Each structure stands twice: as C-alpha cells, then as structure tokens.
Automatic annotation (TrEMBL), chain A:
<dbReference type="InterPro" id="IPR036322">
    <property type="entry name" value="WD40_repeat_dom_sf"/>
</dbReference>
<keyword id="KW-0853">WD repeat</keyword>
<keyword id="KW-0677">Repeat</keyword>
<feature type="compositionally biased region" description="Acidic residues">
    <location>
        <begin position="101"/>
        <end position="110"/>
    </location>
</feature>
<dbReference type="GO" id="GO:0045504">
    <property type="term" value="F:dynein heavy chain binding"/>
</dbReference>
<feature type="region of interest" description="Disordered">
    <location>
        <begin position="95"/>
        <end position="118"/>
    </location>
</feature>
<dbReference type="InterPro" id="IPR050687">
    <property type="entry name" value="Dynein_IC"/>
</dbReference>
<keyword id="KW-0963">Cytoplasm</keyword>
<dbReference type="GO" id="GO:0060294">
    <property type="term" value="P:cilium movement involved in cell motility"/>
</dbReference>
From TrEMBL, chain B:
<dbReference type="GO" id="GO:0005874">
    <property type="term" value="C:microtubule"/>
</dbReference>
<keyword id="KW-0813">Transport</keyword>
<keyword id="KW-0493">Microtubule</keyword>
<dbReference type="InterPro" id="IPR016561">
    <property type="entry name" value="DYNLRB1/2"/>
</dbReference>
<dbReference type="Pfam" id="PF03259">
    <property type="entry name" value="Robl_LC7"/>
</dbReference>
<dbReference type="GO" id="GO:0005868">
    <property type="term" value="C:cytoplasmic dynein complex"/>
</dbReference>
<keyword id="KW-0505">Motor protein</keyword>
<keyword id="KW-0206">Cytoskeleton</keyword>
<keyword id="KW-0243">Dynein</keyword>
Length: 793, 95
C-alpha cells in the first residue's frame, strides 16, 4: 500500500485476548498504539503456526531489530485491516511521536500517513543558522564576467607639433592586403561525398493544347444538284444471273427462313395492340346516346306532287346530291286496279332533285303512267328503268342532261324546257324491245321549269305485266340470262338485264341488247319498225327497241298442283354488286332472288286485289316477297338449277313457305354485309331471314301497333336498319344494342312513310332519304354513331 | 426451273404483296413489282442490310446476320441476306 513498513493485519479475537489489544478495551481509537514484545509474537507464532495472525509478517517480525513491536489499531481501516503492524523502529518512533513533532519538521521525507486534519502551526521566527554551501558559489562564479585574455594596450604617439590636430581613422580590410591574414578555405573532400547512382524520378506528359480557329469565305453561293438514275441490269444479264448456280444455292438456303417468317405472320399478328383497339370501342359506344337523324333538306313540289305520294326513291349513283323520286297517286288497291284503263289527268313524272336547289326539281322524267318503282342502271347512270302501274316497263336516257345534273348548282336559267309529250299508255306498243327516247318538244316554257325527259323505250303491253310492276332491278352486270335460261357471264360489263315482278304472278326478265354508242346512227335498226317517227330531239339510244320490248324470260309463278299463284311484290337479288363504272371483275355466283307472291285464289274472297305473299327462290336463288293479305303466307322457294325453260321452271321448284307478315311485303332487302341475310318488312311486323335456315326467320319482331311501311338496311353498319311506319315515324333498330325494340325512333312527318333509301354521299355524310305520303321528300343526315360501324361489327 | 418454282411458292403465300431478288451490288434481278418501286426498294434495303450486317459483325465477330424484318404499320418487309444475293419479300400480315 506504499508503505513498506506498514503491514495491515487482522487480529482475531483470540489474538486480541492474548496480546491484550482487544478492540475497544485495550486499544481504542485515541489510544491506538500497542507495544508488543517480540518474544511474545514469536511464541505465538510457534504455538499457533499458521493460525497465528502474525504469520504473514513472520519474517518481518523475526528480523525486527527492536524489542517491542508496534501494533496500531486502525479504526478507520486505512490500511485495509483493523490493525496494522509497523515493521521498523524508526517508523515506530515516528508514529508514536509524530503528533508532537510534525510541525517542526518541514522537509521530513518520511511520509507518515496521518490524518488529514490540518494543524495550525504557530508562527516561529526564523532562527539564524550558519550558512551551508550548497554549491551555489560555483554558479555565481560561472556567471560572472571576467576577462579571459588580458587586454592589449597600445600606445600611439605622434610628433609634438601635430598635437591637437585632427586625426582621421579609417578602416582597412585585411583581406585586401596580401598575406595579411591566413585563412583556411574549405574544400570538398571527396572522401566524404556519396555518389548517387540511381534516382527515381517521376515524369508527366502534358499535351500541348492550343486553340485555333479559321473562317472560310464562301465567295460564290451556288446551288449544286446531282441527278442520278439507278443501275439496272439488262435483260440478258438478268437471265444469266437467274440461271446461275449461285442463285439456286442462295434460294435453297434462304427460302426456308423466309417461309418460316411468312407463316409466322399468317398465324397471328404479333403487333396487334389490344389496348388501343379496346379504346376505340369505348369512345364510340360510350359516347353520346343522342342518336338522331338530322334533317338535312326536304323537297316537295306543289305542281307535280299534288295529291301524290312518293312511291320510290333512288339516289343518283355517281352525281352527288341528286336524288330522284317517283310519284304516284295514292289509292287503295281496288282503285289501283280499276285505274289501269283510265287516263290520268295529271301527268306522272319522276322528279330529280338536287341538294343545291330545294325548290326546283332539276329534271323530270315523263311517264305515261304512274311509276311504281324505278332504278338507275348501274353501269350507266343515265339509263333509268321504271315500272308502271299498268305493268309496263320503260326506259329513260338522260345522257343529254347529265352535264346539267352535274352542274346542278347553277340553277336553271335559260334551260330549254321541253314540253311534255303525253303518250298515252294505251297506245299500241309493239312487243319488241323498245328504247324510249326522250322527246324534247319544242314547246318552250318558262325557264324555271325543269326539263322534261321523255321515255325512250317502253315495253309492249302484251308482254308486260298485267298488274303494276312492283319491283324492278337491274341484274348485275357480270352475267346475263339468255333465252334458254342459262346464265352466263356477261363480258360487256354493262347492265343489260332487268328483272321485274308484279302481282300478276309473273317474274319477267328483260334484256337490253348491247347498245351501240349513242353517236352511231342506228340506221340499220331503223328497219325494225317504228310506228311513229321519233321526234328529232330524241336520242337514239334505245331506238331499235322502242315499243317492241319483250321480256326474255317469263317466269310464271303458278303452282300447278294447288293452283296457287304467287304474286311477287318484291325481288331481292343476291348478287347486287353494282359497279358504278369501275372495272372490278367479280366472279359471278349466279344468284338471283326474286320475291314472288302467291295468289291462292281459292282462299281469297276478292279475286283481284288480295295477293298472297310468297317467297320463291328460283334457281339462281331468288328471294321473293309476296303479298299476302289474308293468309299471311310467305313462301320461299329455292331452286338450285339454272333456269332452263319457263315451263320447266315451274316444275322444279323447291318451295318453302313462311307466313309471317300480316300484309303485303313492302320491302325485301338483302343486307349489304351478309349475302344471305334478308330483311323483310310488311304489315305489322318485320323479320330477318337467313338463307339456309329453313325453319323460320332468325329474328322476328313482335306485332306493333302501327303498320310498318318501309324498311332498309343501313349501308355502313351491319346491325342497323331503318323501319318506317305509317304514323310518320322512323324506327332505328340497332341489333347490337337492343333486339326487342328500336334503339331510337324519330318522327319525320305526319303522314305515312312510303320509302326509305339510305345513301353514302361522302365518307362524312350519310343520308337517309325518306318519303312520305304527302309527297314530301325528306333528306336526313345520319349521325355518326349510326353511320360509323364500331370495330368488328 | 427450281428457281421459278421456289419464287412462285413464296409469292403464293397468304398476304405476300411482292418479291424481289437483288444481287450483290443492289441491282434487282427479279421482281414482281413495277420498275420504279423495285429499284427504290432494292437500293434502300440493300444499304440497310449492309449496315445491319456490319453492325452485327462489329458487336461480335463470330456472329452474322441471318434475317432482317421491318414491321411497319401497313405491312412487313422481310429481307433474307446471303453472301451474294438478297431476297426481299413484302407481306401484309392479316389479323
């Protein structure tokens, strides 16, 4: 514990008793010293050996010089035990006596561990003592300054007479005088230098960078151009390389890769963006629900259309904005029939309207009787064929007015108006094919009247229908039927054949032989008799057939066994690819559909007017929509052979009858998108049929309150069709949305809708022409949701 | 010849619009298109094929170009290169 003479000891009680240093009895805190004889300790050591408390200090005890040992009671455990044993005499003395002599000994080097109680030393003045040298004289002596060398004295004397004169002292450098001093110069001692043989040196390379600029002068701005053409091999070279071996090898090695790639593309389109396709659908269908037909224009004419209703509408196939309507007097069926031999007071016309002139019709086609239906010829829009009430078929040629129609914007000023040549229908018409020539009479009328075009060919009465011609269609231009009934391909690419049907149970095919160009004089045709000479203004287009038009094939829809007769009202041709002066060649499929009507007289009460509806498909696939008033029968006949002869025709009928409609079928139309889906409208309901599905229509509407009077498929959307009613409403059916009710209906006029005709005038403008019973033609614009099909519709 | 037959077979695939065989210098040897279009296709595609070939070689000298297909909105142009010749087929992939 830092004190070599102090040994802490533990005194057990026994030891304390032996040595009379029991705690708190013999030895207390104040009186903590106890002198113990050395012999006693030795004695104790011997008797108790290791048990003795003095055992740890046995050696010290044995070496202790004195007689008595000091044991101090350490009450405060300063040394770690309750007693400590002082091992030296001197320490003993000091311990015993230190409290008295502590303040006298300032530089006592013996460290006594006494209590930290500070004692106040009384002041004692210093006592004079003899000076003891501690070595400081030497230091003093060293520091003092003494002359080490004796000073040199010089005595300089001068001549007496210079005494007191000024003296100048100058300095002189000792080195200037030779040999005035001796020096020891330093020199390089080779023995002490170290030669450096190898050195580590770092080197850095820095590129020298310099900035420089130049400017060029463009003295003559000049345009330069190069013309080049590609190198091409001549034919011989091509031949040669084609037959080379290398090419063969190349192709064999390469074509496999190519075919793999081609097949990959055929299998599926890897880049089809489904997400985008989905978005397009959303935008069109999630859009506005306001489906509507916007009224674009309406046309009516007071003079010619008074008390008349429009029976048929046709858009001009090539000229934008021209629409033709035919008017007839609206009569009930009985009156209609009885009217055939009356002459009409008012002339019947077909009016041409133009969008740009809503007031004045552009052109009028004269007709001897009311026209029930008419059509533009697909191959030549200047030929128009129409069917009359009295059963005749007539043709017009308006090529003279074509230009006028095209410039219909310029309202007729100074147009020569041709007078009407009333041709009485009951004039003898020769049975042959007659081309009607428009007669432009010289009777000039006021310039606001539209020009009147006379018919240039009319069919013979004997060979025409006995009843009104209810439907007329041009046959597609890529096949024609010849007299024998075989259909063959028509190379001339012009429509030359017509088919008409009429409630007199017959379907007639008419043939227009290939016409010579109108410029050519048809002099040789003149030989074919003409009863009256044509007025000079009449174009000669169909001259040779005027008044002697005869149908090529006549199909008599009489069923011999049941003695039923079919009265066709509407014809729907399957292949209605009309090419308006385009040069597409379509493979002919030879399918025609002729809707025919059935007339079972036996079940009719009134013989003449009631007609049954029969659908008959004649060999080249006709769909025949007939008129059934009482028995509601709809007959479909599919004949799968070619038309051989008219007689044989009747025998080879494969008849299917469907009775759906309550009344006359007034519309039968094939869907423009699916060739075997047909819409038929009649009476109080309509139905959609599919060819091949023979047990009924695929969709049939429920009987509605009013009568449906007209119907048409939309030209652009496969699931949309328009139905007109007798209360002036148009129902727009969207089959993709709802199939049980029209998706939209709109009121067009107060009277009954008689005809609907959609038309695509431009990709943005889709029109719907609707005619009503009052003789007004409404042209409506179909809104975009109705006209633009959604994806994959 | 075999050459004819192979070319005809390729041409008869569904959707193929045109087939062109081009020699090593970019001059068309055999084509089913009209002349001006052929020349245009041959020149452009020849250069593009050269570039593609050198690109593939630069990246990995052991590699070489086997087939090049360019898919555009309207149709797909497929080029099969070889040492001396080039076969170009334009196809309209149907969906």
């Amino acid at each position: 514990i830092g004190h070599p003479e102090i040994f802490p000891l533990v005194f057990t009680t026994k030891t304390q008793e032996i040595f009379n240093c029991r705690v708190d009895e013999d030895v207390t805190e104040e009186n903590c010293f106890k002198l113990i004889k050395k012999e006693d300790i030795i004695q104790d050591l011997k008797t108790r050996a290791t048990i003795s408390d003095f055992h740890p200090v046995k050696k010290v005890v044995l070496e202790y010089p004195g007689e008595e040992l000091l044991v101090v009671f350490d009450a405060k455990f300063q040394y770690g035990q309750n007693f400590y044993f002082v091992a030296s005499e001197e320490a003993k003395e000091n311990l015993l006596k230190p409290p008295e002599t502590a303040e006298e000994k300032d530089d006592d080097k013996e460290e006594e561990n006494r209590e930290e109680t500070l004692e106040v030393h009384p002041y004692k003045p210093p006592v004079h003592k003899p000076w003891v040298s501690l070595g400081s004289e030497k230091e003093v002596e060293e520091e003092s300054v003494k002359d080490t060398a004796t000073k040199i004295k010089y005595m300089i004397s001068r001549v007496r007479r210079k005494f007191g004169a000024p003296i100048t002292f100058t300095d002189k450098n000792a080195s200037h005088v030779k040999d005035s001093y001796v020096e020891c110069t330093s020199y390089q001692d080779k023995t002490f230098s170290i030669k450096m043989l190898e050195k580590d040196v770092g080197v850095q390379m820095v590129p020298k960078v310099r900035e420089a600029s130049t400017q060029t002068k463009w003295t003559y701005p000049k345009n330069a151009a190069t013309q080049y053409f590609p190198r091409q091999l001549s034919n011989e070279e091509k031949e040669e390389s084609l037959s080379s071996e290398k090419l063969k090898e190349f192709l064999t090695s390469v074509h496999l890769r190519m075919e793999i790639a081609l097949q990959q593309n055929e299998i599926m389109n890897a880049f089809f963006d489904d997400w985008k396709a989905l978005a397009e659908d959303e935008s069109s269908s999630g859009g506005k629900p306001d489906v509507y037909l916007k009224a674009y224009q309406s046309f009516t004419d007071l003079r010619y259309l008074k008390d008349r209703t429009i029976s048929c509408i046709c858009w001009h196939p090539t000229i934008y904005g021209i629409i033709a309507v035919s008017a007839r007097v609206w009569l009930s069926y009985e009156e209609q029939v009885n009217l055939s031999d009356k002459s009409l007071l008012q002339q019947s016309v077909i009016l041409f309207w133009s969008f740009f002139d809503p007031i004045h019709p552009q052109l009028m086609l004269e007709c001897p009787e009311d026209i029930y239906c008419f059509q533009f010829s697909p191959s030549d829009p200047n030929i128009i064929a129409g069917g009359c009430i009295n059963g005749q078929v007539m043709l017009w040629d308006i090529s003279q007015h074509e230009e006028k129609l095209q410039n219909a914007k310029t309202v007729a000023d100074g147009i020569k108006v041709t007078a009407v040549n009333m041709v009485n229908a009951s004039i003898l018409n020769i049975l042959q094919y007659i081309y009607m020539s428009p007669s432009l009479m010289q009777v000039q009328q006021s310039s606001t009247e539209p020009p009147l075009v006379r018919y240039c060919a009319v069919s013979s009465i004997q060979n025409s229908h006995k009843k009104p011609v209810t439907d007329i269609h041009w046959l597609p231009d890529y096949f024609e039927d010849n007299r024998m009934g075989a259909t063959f391909e028509n190379r001339a690419e012009i429509c030359v054949q017509l088919v008409t049907c009429s409630p007199d149970c017959s379907i007639l095919f008419w043939d227009i032989p290939a016409t010579k160009l109108p410029e050519q004089p048809s002099s040789e045709k003149v030989k074919e008799e003409e009863i009256f000479c044509m007025p000079p203004d009449v174009p000669d287009t169909f001259k040779h057939l005027d008044l002697c038009w005869k149908p090529v094939i006549k199909i008599n829809l009489r069923k011999s066994d049941t003695n039923t007769e079919y009265s066709p009202v509407r014809i729907s041709l399957k292949e209605l690819h009309y090419h308006y002066k385009t040069s597409e060649k379509v493979q002919s499929l030879n399918t025609l559909e002729v809707p025919a009507k059935d007339n079972p007289y036996t079940e009719m009460s009134t013989p003449s007017s009631k007609n049954l509806k029969v659908l008959e498909n004649i060999s080249t696939d006709f769909f025949v929509g007939t008129e059934v008033s009482e028995n509601n029968r709809l007959l479909m006949k599919i004949l799968n052979q070619d038309i051989q002869k008219t007689e044989q025709l009747n025998n080879r009928k494969h008849t299917q009858k469907y009775t759906i409609h309550t009344e006359t079928i007034n519309t039968l139309q094939r869907s423009p998108f699916f060739k075997d889906v047909v819409l038929s409208v009649g009476g109080q309901n309509f139905a959609i049929w599919k060819e091949g599905v023979t047990n009924g229509p695929i969709l049939q509407s429920s009987c509605s309150a009013g009568r449906y009077t007209a119907g048409q498929w939309s030209l652009t959307r496969p699931g949309v069709f328009f139905i007109g009613r007798d209360d002036g409403n148009i129902d727009i059916w969207d089959l993709l949305r709802k199939t049980h009710e029209p998706s939209h209906f709109q009121n067009i006029s107060e009277s009954m809708i008689t005809f609907i005709s959609p038309w695509i005038a431009s990709p943005k403008q889709h029109f719907l022409a609707v005619s009503d019973g009052l003789g007004v033609l409404h042209v409506l614009e179909i809104c975009q949701t109705l006209s633009h099909p959604s994806r994959n519709e | 010849a075999e050459v004819e037959e192979t070319l005809k077979r390729i041409q008869a695939h569904k959707g193929v619009i045109a087939t062109i065989v081009v020699n090593g210098e970019g001059i068309p040897i055999r084509t089913t298109l009209d002349n001006s279009t052929t020349v245009q296709y041959a020149g452009l595609l020849h250069q593009l094929t050269m570039k593609a070939r050198s690109t593939v070689r630069d990246i990995d000298p052991q590699n070489e170009l086997t087939f090049l297909r360019i898919r555009s909105k309207k149709h797909e142009i497929m080029v099969a290169p070889d040492k001396e010749y080039l076969l170009i087929v334009i196809q309209n992939p149907c969906e």
